[in-house]
Amino acid sequence: MGFYLRKSFRAGPVRLNLSKSGFGISGGIKGARIGAGPRGRYIHAGRHGLYYRQNLSSGKTQNPSNVEGEGCAMILLVVIALGVGIWLLSWLLKHPMIMTTAIIIALGIPIVRFVMHSRQQKLVSAYKTALDTAFVISQSPPNKFVLAAIEQQKQVLPSVIR
Description:
Layout: E1 6-11, E2 14-19, E3 22-29, E4 32-37, E5 40-47, E6 50-55, H1 67-94, H2 96-137, H3 144-156
Antiparallel strand pairs: 1-2, 2-3, 3-4, 4-5, 5-6
Helix pairs in contact: 2-3
């Protein structure tokens, strides 16, 4: 076997490979990778001296309308996304303060929005009840104190509703 030069750059589960024959990208987890490069697409698996490599296509004769190639690209993207997700989760587990903050934010935002929405609904409901009581249910026209109270409730309503 001849000598060769290769340089790779890792970004989590994604590896960018540079060699004399060109540029390639692969992704996956330890022991299982799927990649594409100048010599075609491939799957590579194994550990501790026992490896398996299967070429999925040739890099020299690629057909642009190759449906199998699109499927392989989708598998590659899924493997990369899973790898990035696993890497991110493991990184977050190593940094519990950041993970705790992210969980609090992820749960806190919907809770705050729900509370604000409930408060707005209560204000609108109280305003409608005051209007109904003053103008629909009452037998006489409202006096200036009732109108002032209704106007005060209207000022408390969110600007979107007014």
